């Protein structure tokens, strides 16, 4: 299995190449530099592996949520490659990638992901580790005010920029559930590749025209008075 994954949804820009269980990757924190960096990252990975795009079996990208421009860059690049090659595309949640990275790097199994969504809100999702060592969503991914985040049980670890911007508010909401937090973490194409390979084998892939971004702005939690 050979799969190329990219992500530009946050301040980080990354690309990864999955080849038969091994992952090569490039990652850089570079706000507003994604359009300049992502294609050279892809070329560098392909060159290091000694393959060309035609040798790939599939593509994957961070489909959001995240910054509007960044998500569009990844979508546009992967659609362009997909149209040119007719390769199948696997869209992967950037929140899921955050959670997967927390397991891969630190061994955390219950992740409360939060990306700063601006306008006083966060992109929010809770993930737990499944038996296949991949993160699974619990409930829904939402865009909500930090005052509305909720946990379920104890042992959660907060991951993502929302935990930096709204640390005090979110800690107070999860005072009995939160074990630790790491705000300065970003989605990584390495983890998008791992999740995408599993999805691909489970038939979760689309053609380039259907590889669309997810912004979550139309998927908000009810206000307390409406619940």
UniProtKB/TrEMBL annotation:
Q: Which GO terms describe its cellular component?
A: cytosol
The keyword Transmembrane is annotated on this UniProt entry:
no
Main localization (coarse):
cytoplasm
According to its UniProt entry, one GO biological process term is: tRNA threonylcarbamoyladenosine modification
Cite the Gcp-like domain residue spans from the record: 28-222
Q: Which GO terms describe its molecular function?
A: transferase activity
Q: Which InterPro entries match?
A: ATPase_NBD, Gcp-like_dom, T6A_TsaB
Keywords of this entry? Cytoplasm, Transferase, tRNA processing
Subcellular localization, as worded in the UniProt entry = Cytoplasm
In terms of SUPFAM superfamilies, this protein maps to: Actin-like ATPase domain
The family annotation for this protein states: Belongs to the KAE1 / TsaD family. TsaB subfamily.
* Name recorded for this polypeptide: tRNA threonylcarbamoyladenosine biosynthesis protein TsaB
Q: Which organism is it from?
A: Solemya pervernicosa gill symbiont
């Amino acid at each position: 299995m050979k799969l190329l994954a990219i992500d530009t949804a946050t301040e980080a820009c990354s690309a990864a190449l999955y080849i038969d269980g091994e992952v090569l990757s490039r990652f850089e924190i570079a706000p507003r530099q994604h359009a300049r960096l992502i294609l050279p990252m892809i070329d560098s990975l392909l060159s290091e592996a000694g393959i060309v795009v035609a040798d790939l079996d599939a593509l994957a990208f961070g489909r959001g949520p995240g910054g509007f421009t960044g998500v569009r860059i990844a979508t546009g690049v992967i659609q362009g490659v997909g149209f040119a090659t007719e390769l199948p595309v696997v869209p992967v949640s950037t929140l899921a990638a955050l959670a997967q990275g927390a397991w891969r790097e630190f061994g955390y199994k219950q992740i409360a992901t939060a990306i700063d969504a601006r306008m006083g809100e966060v992109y929010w999702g809770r993930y737990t580790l499944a038996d296949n060592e991949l993160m699974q969503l619990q409930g829904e991914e939402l865009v909500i005010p930090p005052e509305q985040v909720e946990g379920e049980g104890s042992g959660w670890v907060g991951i993502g920029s929302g935990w930096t911007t709204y640390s005090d508010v979110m800690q107070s909401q999860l005072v009995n559930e939160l074990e630790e937090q790491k705000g300065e973490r970003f989605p990584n194409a390495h983890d998008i590749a791992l999740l995408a390979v599993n999805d691909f084998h489970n038939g979760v892939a689309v053609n380039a025209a259907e590889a669309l971004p997810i912004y979550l702005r139309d998927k908000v939690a009810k206000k307390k008075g409406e619940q």
